[in-house]
User: What shape does this take?
Amino acid sequence: MQRYSLAALLRHGLNGHRGWQANWGVEQPQASYDAIVIGGGGHGLATAYYLAENHGLRRVAVLEKGWIGGGNTGRNTTIIRSNYLFPESAAFYDFSVKLYEKLSRTLNYNIMFSQRGMILLAHSRHDMENVSRWASAMHLNGIDAEILDAARVKKLVPIIDASPSARIPIYGGMNQPRGGSARHDAVAWGYARAAAARGVDIVQNCEVLGFETAAGRISGVVTSKGTIAAPKVAIAVAGHSSALAAKAGIELPVNSYALQAFVSEPVKPMLDTVVLSPATGMYFSQSDKGELVIGGGLDLYASYAQRGNFPTVEKTVAAMVDMFPSVGRLRFMRQWAGIVDVVHDSSPIIDRTSVPGLYINCGWGTGGFKAIPAGGWTFAHTIAHDDPHPLAKPFGFARFTSGAMIDEAAAAGIAH
Assistant: This one.
């Protein structure tokens, strides 16, 4: 990796950034690899990195239809948490938080992980009973959680309307102090640079058009840059998983929806935690630049359009202004939507497929970003050993025939 002096940094910055040495990427892929990862988002890049780092595979390629981090990794609200009810989910997502806690050192790249806490609001006595049960389950699973009364919520979130006359009353809530947020682009760039340094080829603007098989096994992929041979192929393309898997003759139990987010104009620091209101579906945090990063619920119709519709915007904004009146006059700077892949039980799929040599990582729904390190770690293990990692085994295809679903959305009222 090339290093630059201060003078060189200034010179490159003033001449239009010409002459930079690329930290990753090749224009043309090789004719064959030991493994191919389709998808240059966080999960695909992390998978390629851990294939090289943990399992010694060096002849690995990441094929990205667009640009690195241009899909859901660059279209989310950057929240990281492990506040889950079921032991299987708790173990998986807390492993991801633990990897995030040391990821900047691991990748030698500052991902700007800020453990500012994650507060779930309770708006009724029933909500308080739910968060008490939820926090107890987290404690049993060895995860940090604390119950908050209304006064404590007000102290942690001074801008919230916790008055007796509030339209949406605040009864209290629950906090996971180790939760927080990270810089989404930095996570993608950090994994990309680290993977490339270990010999992984990252090929952008390379669309996978189909799959090749020999003797019933995967033998390669057909792409817009030619046919590439590989005995192992992994799919990690989020909302487009079902469309790509169909090219291999596989039908996935996945539906794709738009999930919207918004960013306000920057203001002085006013919020140093992440706030989620499960009853309204609204959640937000403040970025290091001072912008409020706001999210809401799904646009509940199947779509591949990265924009969403206005009723969802209206519902999200109404809830936010009701609970935080002081932000009512802020202007939105940007709005977008990511295409999320939702499985029937709101849990992911990390497994081998019915085609030998073809593997799938999908179904993260609304929370794939926080799972990137653990998703990549366990998916790489599954590919390298042709057997699911112990943390990933509960999230395989077998649960759809055994009935051993892990439905956090139904149990705790929060989607993945």
